[in-house]
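Entry for the shared binder. Reason: the reviewer on the internal report wants the predicted structure included alongside the sequence.
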Amino acid sequence: MRNNFLKTIFLLILITGIVLPLYLKIYLKSQTLTDQPLQEEVSSGTLGKGGFLRASLKKEGFSQKEIFLLGEVLKPIFNFRKCHPDDRYEITRASGKFKSLRYWTSPLDFYLIESEESGGLVAFQRKVEAEEVVVGVKGEIESSLYESMLKKNLTPDLIMRFADIFAWQIDFLTEPRKGDRFKFIWKRYQKDEKPLLEGRILAAQYENIRKTHTAIFFEDTSASGRRDYYTTEGKSLRKIFLRSPLHYRRISSYFSYRRFHPILKYYRPHLGIDYAAPVGTPVSTIGDGVVVYAGWKGGYGRFVKIKHSGSYYTTYGHLSRYGRRIKKGKRVKQGQVIGYVGSSGLSTGAHLDFRVLRNGRFVNFLRLKLPPAKSLDPKYKTLFDKIKEECLFRLAQI
């Protein structure tokens, strides 16, 4: 009896010594696996040529159904048609399952789509919390304006914006000389002292042997909020029209009263200018105005017509598509994108058919003497002078 009892005690001790440690080992291992965070995988990129988010998502392995669902949840706050080739995205997956999509429309603005625990999707519009500072730079021309500014670590976009300010006063392709000086101040948005976005140029100067050109940015307090760059006297630096409706340009056909049409095979007037450019090149309105027509127009294909002040009209033909929210009755600002180069209608290749009418008659835009844009409204002179003095002080401190 006693021996049986001792054997039972011994077996219990033996079982406890073997089974319990094994159980604890398995239990602790399962707990460790449970407590470990899911492994995250992040993929990112830019939309690239064409600027289609759906195409980028397809390359990232999303099915058509998943792309449709992402589009549906994003639709109330963002339209897929507003995508731009430079926009970037960031996709996060946890153990292979979708977790979130960040879609950046600028270095400061992005849209966020997240997966909920219930399996649904939710979308938000977000903005990076950034510090706004005013920075400045000055330098001398050594070769070209572009190369001299690149040496100052300025972005190409900022360089082009500086050149655009003085585009009507200086031909930066031919006029700059070694020793010419430049300086300007602009807004910068940064986080942890790291630049995120180079904002608006507030004031700029370009000095050559003949003259110092000064530009002051000013936005009035009217309902329209008119904004422009002015001289220190309050005169606009712009002309009423831009020099061209697009930046990338090669004139393939000039204004003519007798041109052989490549499709119709006979001579007829060509009362405009053809700018050869790749499909998708942005087309800008050359001046402020109102869209009076936006739609298909026979041989012109996709077509936009804009009414400007002073009995001027401009037309833009053979477009591949229209700009954002461009429709009849829409007010547009000089430089605003109203469409994209294409080859619609009677066209043998990608180009923009651009025409100008004055008092109901077509005129040769390349020979047109353009009046200056509207000067500063006198009622804003006191406010303008205050901003001007502050900007000139900042320029002097660079």
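Summary line for the report: The chain is about 20% helix and 35% strand.
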